[in-house]
Amino acid sequence: MASDLMKAMFGRTDQVEAHEAHEAHVTPQVTPQVTPQVLQLLSVLKGAKNRDTLQRALGLKARKNFRLLYLVPALEAGLIEMTIPDKPQSSKQKYRLTDKGQKLIQDSKFKIEGLDMTKIEKFEEWHEKGHEDPLFGAIAQLATNAMKQGCTIQAALALVSQAFRFADQIIEDFETKEPLAEPVACKAGCHYCCCYEVVLTPVEALLLGNRVKETFSESALADLMKKIDRILFLRDGKDAEERAKVLHDTPCIFLKSGKCSFYDARPFVCRALHSLDGSMCKEAVMSKRRVVEFTGYNHRYYVFATAKAALNQFFEQMGCQTAELTIAKAMKHYFERSDCTEAWLRGDEVFSSSCVSSKTRGQKGALLKTKDRGLHF
User: Fold this and answer.
1) Helices then strands, each counted (H, E), the chain
2) Which of 10, 97, 125, 377 is 20 to 30 A from 135 (CA-CA)?
């Protein structure tokens, strides 16, 4: 059973000795600075794929934006190549990684020595270990390398994309070596967790805002703002009990036809949330309960929570705003000023301090919890 696996992975029978944490270290590779759009393209390019397939994988509809921001820069940098180079306009044209592109992907990975998730005593202990945690240290080193060439908007957004891919990679590698006792029920079209209020960090919000700017038409942006205003009207200033009553009617602003519009850029909390029983998720949302109990795997929460905390601490040390906020208010504030990302990088408070109200702050763990313990994410 899943609960038995969690006990085996996070119980007290295999505690980590202090010297193991101190001896753990990270071996990072320096990754050449490329745009976050190109990194996202490389991350979904496995084998040879045509243009339409790549756009669908990235959640992009505008062909012009895809060509100018993703395809052309990757081709010019020699990171991808055409399968039919002498016929660029061929209807059978596909794209694949070059040796240079494959090396970039490989060099952006980290070898973490000393990280053994089967010996993590408790999910909650990640925040107590701080820099002694090898995963925390790996993300910190990733951030340092990414910003070496300058604290630019391009570098900051690319860093977030790298951190997402890195955390996903850790989960994939671990679950390949340690197969799950029970399969995760999450799949395309199952979107009940998308009804819960997403709380994210400013830099995650900036990445999403940037994607909206790239892909949304004026009319689509206007529709998005209407959706945001409606959600804020129904949720803002309400306590958890009141918000739970409208869960089914206030899904994420980026949920469309049961799918995430920006799946590859979804926040850490969205990456972490999962369940072994989809029917329980549906029943919880439709019954409008404030407290939801479900079974999941703690190693996923550990990885994504640690990555999120390390990245946030890095930007806090840079003097950037890091207080978490709800996704609806984040996008509303983002589009209220044209220089939102630039101002944030300068250290300005671009998101109102009231973005996360006292009634909302800290209640994510109360709304969602495993059978073992609350998820304070």
Assistant:
1) 19, 10
2) 97
